[in-house]
Amino acid sequence: MLARTPKAVCLECGLPGTSPAFTAHAGIREHGPAYWSDRGILCSVGCASEHFRKRKADRSYIAIPLDCPVEVEA
After folding, report:
1. pLDDT tens for each residue of 30-73
2. Which of 10, 40, 59, 74 could be joined to 15 by an S-S link, Cβ 3.0–4.6 Å?
């Protein structure tokens, strides 16, 4: 079975990655999202903190840095 293509929406609130409210790395949209996890992207520090809290609570937190799951322009 083929894996689904990840959608560019926030894991916590569902905000689309194309929204102007989505936080970009260094404030530059071409650099990709500022926050992500192994499960997808997060739109803000608030959603990233909530995602971290949930992952710690269910013991699924990964303590190693991960590469951004979204293709960014070089």
Report:
1. 888 999 988 889 999 999 999 999 999 999 988 888 887 777 65
2. 10
Q: What is the pTM for the complete model shown?
A: 0.77
List, in sequence order, every residue forming a beta bridge with 18; answer none if it has no partner.
Answer: none
Answer for the pair 28, 62: CB distance below 8 angstroms, yes or no. Answer: no
Sequence letter at residue 25: H
CA 13 to each of CA 26, 72, 73: distance values in angstroms, whole numbers, following the listed order: 21, 22, 25
Q: In the chain, what's the furthest Cα-to-Cα distance?
A: 37
Enumerate the domain spans of the chain: 7-74
